Amino acid sequence: MDALITAAGLVFDPSVLWVIVASAAFGMFVGAMPGLTATMATALLVPVTFFMAPVPALGAIVTATAMAIFAGDIPAAMLRIPGTPASAAYTDESYAMSKKGELDLNLGVNLVFSVLGGLIGVVILIFCAPILAEAAINFSSFEYFWLALLGLTCAIFMTAGDPLKGLTSLIFGLLINCIGIDPTAGHPRFTFGSVELLQGISFIPAMIGMFALSELLRGAVSVDQQGAVLAQKIGNIFTGVWAVFKKYWFNFLRGSALGVAIGALPGAGADIAAWISFAVSKRFSKTPEKFGTGHIEGIVDATSANNSALGGAWIPALVFGIPGDSITAIVIGVLYMKGMNPGPTVFLQNPQFIYAVFIIFVLANILMLPLGWAAIKSAKQILRVPRNVLLPIILLFCVVGAYAMTNSPYGIIVMLVLGLIGWLMEENGFPIAPAILGLVLGEMLEQNFMTSMIKADGNAMIFFERPIAGVLGVVTALIWGTMIWRGMMGRKATLAPTEPDPTPGT
């Protein structure tokens, strides 16, 4: 109880509240701008948080990301361009609904169900994280090795599209993580005589480059593709929302639960949660023929899911130090920067910070209602901001942030190189998230593997002798087996000869 009171005192400090409100406005603006993602909002905030205490730093990131995920729904409804990838799953449905003259109801449902979905995610985070942390306190290097490997495996398994490209991206992340001093033997690796490379690839500049700079490059390529805003006047957005809730309350609960479960999987995140929830909604709908014509049912599922996934993604990040998505990967970097090593011990050593995160999550979701309403009312003005003015300003923030992290041009070089690589990867269909997970989890995987091998004196079977380690090992092996089997079946279907068409003359 003392920790909770201390946390409330930290969060409700006027300076912290000011940071939360300012971050909320920033997140709302970035999310509403097509092409600027929630991850980019987080990456741009990191240099600013460098100068803050832990609670306002975490408050800024939590609030900005929650707002950005919702705000992505606004251009999806008005321009048919998702503000963030998390809104892409239902952009067509949303725009079709707006064209039918239901823009007010569409935006109202997006706002209210985003708030409710976010609150469901927070409630599950509050209940699950301490219980898991209590269990995780007994984990040894064997369990952490399997957890890291399971996290990397899920990152490939959940890759939308080609898993081979996900694996390639993951290996790239693991390779750049090898640059620097070997954590076990203390020997320099891949430094080529460079003093700067001895410290390894600096995490935050790499994040800014791969997420923010790559988005800027993509935005620069499509700077003229801004789209036309619907001419409809925005009225009372809350009219009819209660009727939608009464009719689709089960969809809301199902979407929120799916969002938390998918968000907690390493590498998945809000984007995949929205896609899967929308597909599940259509699969089990009593009126699937209405999907694609501007039907509200799938929007309820998906918009609840992408906001509840945020809370889910924080569960593995806080308890095990394993990021649930690209946003929590950045958060883990911030936690290390603030001297708060994520994992079960943070619940014992700094419980006030954990409670502060919970309070900030609740506060951010409640704030979303009035700020979201204001953003919707001023959406037409926000969407008119020219991107050829906005993009150079963001680039300036990227450069300053990368320099501030290392206090040398080395950070800028890392940002530029990895930003260019990230852009090339995405342009060719290689996802960035597995590379980031490789960069974040690579050291954890290597350290725990080497520690375990030293403890086991080279006996690999000891990795399966502890009960939890054994279960994690078997689950990991099953996922790898499933991926190999799917790959073989896919290859067999591709190589199978097609039967000749018996129809003559065709």
TrEMBL record:
What sequence ranges are listed for the domain DUF112? 17-437
**Which residue windows are coiled coil?**
none
Give the transmembrane ranges.
16-36, 43-70, 107-132, 144-161, 197-214, 257-280, 313-337, 353-376, 388-406, 412-442, 463-485
List the Pfam families hit by this protein, alphabetically: TctA
This protein's UniProt keywords: Membrane, Transmembrane, Transmembrane helix
**ATP-binding among the record's keywords?**
no
Q: Do you know which InterPro entries this protein is assigned to?
A: DUF112_TM (IPR002823)
Q: What protein name applies here? A: C4-dicarboxylate ABC transporter permease
